[in-house]
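Task 17 of the worksheet. Students: predict the tertiary structure of the chain below and write it out as C-alpha cells. Keep your answer in the requested format; marks are given for formatting as well as content.
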Amino acid sequence: MPQSLAISGSPRQNGNTETLLRRCLDRLAIQGIGGELISLAGKNVRGCNACGACGGSRDATCPGISDDFAPVFEKMLRADILIVGSPVHFGSATPELMALLDRAGYVSRANGHLFARKIGGPIAVARRAGHNFTYAQLMFWYMINDMVVPGSTYWNVALAREPGAVAGDAEALATVDRFADNLAWLARKLA
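Model answer:
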C-alpha cells in the first residue's frame, strides 16, 4: 500500500497548516493509505550552501551540513505521496520549509531525480493574502522535481489566522478533501 508524508513548514505546532495537513492524512487513511505528519517547528534545517557534496554522496544525502535535514529527507524518499504545507509569511512560504525543499531538491536531482513520479502537492494558509503566490512557489518545487500533482475543486489554499480558524473555511476543507481523494485515486491508478 502507498504511504504518505505530510510536512508542515509552520514554525507553530498545531496551527492551521497542521490542521489541514492532518485532515488530508485522515482522508487518505480512510482510503487505506497510511501516513505521517512531520512538523518543522523546533527543527534546525539550514538552507543549501551550494557545496555540491550531495552529488558525490554514497547515500544520497547532504553531507555538507550537519542539522535535522537527513531524517526528514529519508522519510521523504520512502513516501509515495508527499504533501507540504506552509502558512504565508510576508507573501511566501516559510524559510524553514524552503530550506528543506531546496536542499531536498538539490540532493534528489544530484542523485538521479529521486522524487521523479512521486505524487503529492502543496497546501498554503494565509491570514488575508499571499496564498496564491505561496501555492505557486511550492508547486514549482513539485514540477522541477518531476512529480505528479493532481488537482482539486480549487487551489489548495485557506484563509485563517488564529489557531483553529481554518475549521471555519468550508471551501478550503472541501478542497483539501477532494485533493486527498484525488491523491488516493491516483495512487491506486499508478500502483
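Marker's comment: Helices lie at 16-30, 69-78, 95-110, 131-144, 170-190. The domain at 3-190 is CATH 3.40.50.360 (Rossmann fold).
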